[in-house]
Amino acid sequence: MMFSEEPRKNLLLVSSSTVYGRGYLDHVESEIRGALAGLERVLFVPFALYDRDAYAAKAKHRFRQMGFVLESVHENPGQRPVKEAQAIFIGGGNTFRLLKALYDYDLLETIRNRVEAGVPFIGSSAGSIVACPTLKTTKDMPVVQPPSFDALHLVNFQISPHYLDPDPNSTHMGETQEERIIQYLEENDRPVVGLREGTMLRVHQGSIVLRGDSSARVFRRGHRPAEVPPGTDLSGVAATMGTQ
Known about the structure:
The protein is an alpha/beta fold.
């Protein structure tokens, strides 16, 4: 399976909304401004955290600093805000809680249709995972049970955010993130991008480009993991990956 996307899609899929030593969304401000160029309003989806009011207030303040008006879908739940949205931002938190709420409010198909029509979409952490076909590559605890693992399917691959490399000096005997991704590939034939902190994927004009200050790790069934540097267009990665 290859990495590919339709030219009309405009997505920014971020590993984490905060990195060490910087504030909320500081490390992705320029990317957000680029994705939202020419727009004024953003619809926020705060369902990944329990306190939606506090989460929305935090996001509103940060987007106001960037020159955008942010409205939260939880303040006016239903299809209309999504259908009228200039752009959509889904924040991080618990992926199971987020996906369940998207089902509860019947927003999956509406968001998918809007993004496929060219409405910019920004996802961070859990928001990036639900942009994928399923939430099967999340590391979150299933604190609630969504009716399905099927997610927005805005891209044709999976993301594993907050990717951590194995620590050779650690005495921890649990599974590494790489081992968990390999387990996923034993049961599913869909590529996985391990996004390290400070990295993101920019899906725009048919390309899928890694941005940020670190490389990413790409996994495909039957192939050795590939280390890809910033600036790489993932649509060309599959052809260069060696077999195991």
